[in-house]
Design brief:
This protein is an all-beta fold. It is about 0% helix and about 45% strand. A hairpin with a 2-residue loop joins strand 1 and strand 2 (about 30-40).
C-alpha cells in the first residue's frame, strides 16, 4: 500500500490539545516536498493551506508565500 500522508486518521489526542501542526513529506512533480500545515489552533484564525518548509541550522523555515498544491 502506498500512503501519501494525506489520508491520515484523526487521533483522539487532537481533541485535547490547543493546536495541531502537521509536518509531512509528499511527492509533487516527481520530487519529495516538505509540507507544513496548521490543522487546528484554538482561538486563532489560521491559514490551513499547506506551505513548503525546510529544516535548516536556524530551525524550521516555513515559506508562507508559497503553496504546495494549486
Amino acid at each position: 500500500i502506498t500512503r501519501t500522508g494525506m489520508d491520515r486518521e484523526h487521533q483522539i489526542e487532537e481533541d485535547l490539545v490547543q493546536g495541531v501542526i502537521l509536518l509531512r513529506t509528499v511527492i509533487k512533480d516527481g520530487k519529495l516536498s516538505r509540507m507544513f500545515q496548521v490543522e487546528k489552533m484554538r482561538r486563532l484564525a489560521v491559514d490551513n493551506q499547506p506551505h513548503p518548509y525546510d529544516i535548516t541550522n536556524n530551525g524550521i523555515e516555513v515559506y508562507p508565500d508559497l503553496v504546495v498544491f494549486k
